[in-house]
Amino acid sequence: MAEAHQAVGFRPSLTSDAGEVELGVPVLQEIYLSGLRSWKRHLSRFWNDFLTGVFPASPLSWLFLFSAIQLACFLQLDPSLGLMEKIKESLPDWGGQHHRLRGVLAAALFASCLWGALIFTLHVALRLLLSYHGWLLEPHGAMSSPTKTWLALVRIFSGRHPMLFSYQRSLPRQPVPSVQDTVRKYLESVRPVLSDKDFDWTAGLAQEFLKLQASLLQWYLQLKSWWASNYVSDWWEEFVYLRSRNSLMVNSNYYMMDFLYVTPTPVQAARAGNAVHALLLYRHRLDRQEILPTLLMGMRPLCSAQYEKIFNTTRIPGVHRDHIRHLRDSRHVAVFHRGRFFRVGTHSQSRLLSPRALEQQFQRILDDPSPACPHEEHLAALTAAPRDTWAQVRRSLKTQAQEALEAVEGAAFFVSLDSEPAGLTREDPAASLDAYAHALLAGQGHDRWFDKSFSLIVFSNGKLGLSVEHSWADCPISGHMWEFTLATECFQLGYSADGHCKGHPDPLLPQPQRLHWDLPDKIHLSISLALRAAKTLSGNIDCHVFPFSHFGKNFIKRCHLSSDSFIQTTLQLAHFRDRGQFCLTYESTMTRLFLEGRTETVRSCTREARDFVRTMEDKEKTDAQCLALFRLAVDKHQALLKAAMSGQGVDRHLFALYVVSQFLHLQSPFLDQVHSEQWQLATSQIPVQQIHLFDVHNYPDYVSSGGGFGPADDHGYGVSYMFMGDDVITFHISSKKSSTRTDSHRLGQRIQDALLDVAALFPEGQRLKRRGLGEEDSG
């Protein structure tokens, strides 16, 4: 999502004077430290690692094995073939009366060794099985005999009742692709957007790179892939996110929306109470690893490492680089309302406060008439400032207002009780949705603490939203939490007839603690400057959200096509009609099939998509010709998507090669050219991961409407989309008002027209287009 903007901007942070000093360390040392960080993370999770590390076995299986050995000994059988006797001889002699104890200890030690060997064998076998990606490359709906055999073996070795991190030790490491293949795929991806002259020049740079530098850089990546958990993910977090000096607002955050058509209660404090309680229930399940790991096809597990930092996490600014601070626990949330900050405890006597008690606390804040202190109202604008500026100001703030700062940064998450309503309105549905998206993405520039892992935003009419910082995890992780939150607060916790949380208030609860900021005079100017810059950035963002209801996932499935590839290919048509040219297109997909995998880029603007678009714009071509080329473009996109998911993408490999070249101080014109590219169309699909939580057939309105992010380029678009149920697609478009080349509303209309035009290539779609045009004419 927002990563496309960060990916474009990471290069200056590598070549800055301050960064150059740090990048001067030997590359072998950096690879060593990368592996060391991986091992430290594993050691910090020692206890959970023990419980999940024995999976697919269980501690009870050791007891069963020990009992079986004891039974064999009782029957005068020796399953150890003499090993237990040797173990017994090596144990201290405690006298004749302890002879039986020595036998039991020898049996226990032998059982433990045998149990460990069996677990290791299961891990190795499962890791080898999970390294198979043939199932991913097969045509949809078809399954070969090897894949069927693979599924049966995975089912046997996977065990039962897995915990969230049960499969971590069995996940394969992300492979380093062949550098020749990566360069070939890269050249293929840029061919549709380059002239013949520019392409020949780029191809020449590529050949020079393969001859001179590629083998050395590739060797270091191979070494890192063997030593560290993942050859690219830690560098991606470091250089793309934490070293970026840009404002987090718009550039490194994204938003997620509430239900589109319904609001369970109009009572702001009640909605906040249920939502906060639901979020903390999710955290409780997360701490106990009761959240089930995500499984593709119901069998193939995805990496769960990113779940660890959802809560109690803050991105701390630094002059040259930020760092992520994660606490093991936090018993409060930080709340912002009308320029004031509060600390609200979430537990009483070690028990989570009820939704009604939390509502009571939030209502007390809403009813508090005290005004904001001077400059306190706009203090959070500093978190939207450039990171080096905020880091310098934070040093003074930490000295003068350490307690208040710690209360915010040490909170489980941030809650903003907005004074304005938001969401879809009947009077002006288009403008109201656009304003809703803008409020979630940027707010007023001073009412979100952008450093927090996420901020829960509750509007005055009870509408909810989420603003998420991107460095700690990717969208599917926060999306999983958000789905649980919406389903739990609405369907399980529920509301009384008068709109309040169920239960009774607790009059003995202490009042929420007002946070007091002793702001030194020297930061007043910094706050004013940060606020001015934040308002300028916020005012420059053009958001447009619309639900496309003419058809959805059901229609695309009946066409026997991939839903995502259908949309991506259609977006190429819409963008060409909007700009009159093709451009590099960024689609984010996950690489969580591998240990600590994050994302990869699918370059959706292909030669096949270009040929389809040109054919569609040629009035002399028939529908049959257009449809044939459309299917080819969709198939090509599917192949690229599957290759990216299986670790055979282009951009992360080129990124890692570039980082190594910087460590070695090797100049590569080819890699410089690659990382100077601009993504004028950045796209992402918001997946629905827990469809079982929502009854989309009986209650189709009770599904989240997805979310969005800022554009990756000053003259580009950010486009995200989500399939709401079976018959609606929600689009979120962003661009910058300062650009004369972009207009979010214009692109939105192009997308709707392109969807109807593509649908009309199919027999059933012609009726949909006529209906769509009729509705537009009547409107």
UniProtKB/TrEMBL annotation:
Compartment(s) where it occurs, according to its Swiss-Prot or TrEMBL record: Cell projection, Axon; Cell projection, Dendrite; Endoplasmic reticulum membrane
Sequence ranges assigned to domain Carnitine O-palmitoyltransferase N-terminal in this UniProt record: 1-47
Domain called Choline/carnitine acyltransferase: residue spans: 175-752
InterPro entries linked: Carn_acyl_trans, CAT-like_dom_sf, Cho/carn_acyl_trans, Cho/carn_acyl_trans_2, CPT_N
Keywords of this entry: Acyltransferase, Cell projection, Endoplasmic reticulum, Fatty acid metabolism, Hydrolase, Lipid metabolism, Membrane, Transferase, Transmembrane, Transmembrane helix
Active-site feature positions: H470 (proton acceptor)
Protein name: Palmitoyl thioesterase CPT1C
Coarse class of the protein's main subcellular location: other
EC number from the UniProt entry: 3.1.2.22
One GO biological process term: fatty acid beta-oxidation
Natural source organism: Bos mutus (wild yak)
Chain segments annotated as transmembrane: 104-126
SUPFAM superfamilies, sorted: CoA-dependent acyltransferases
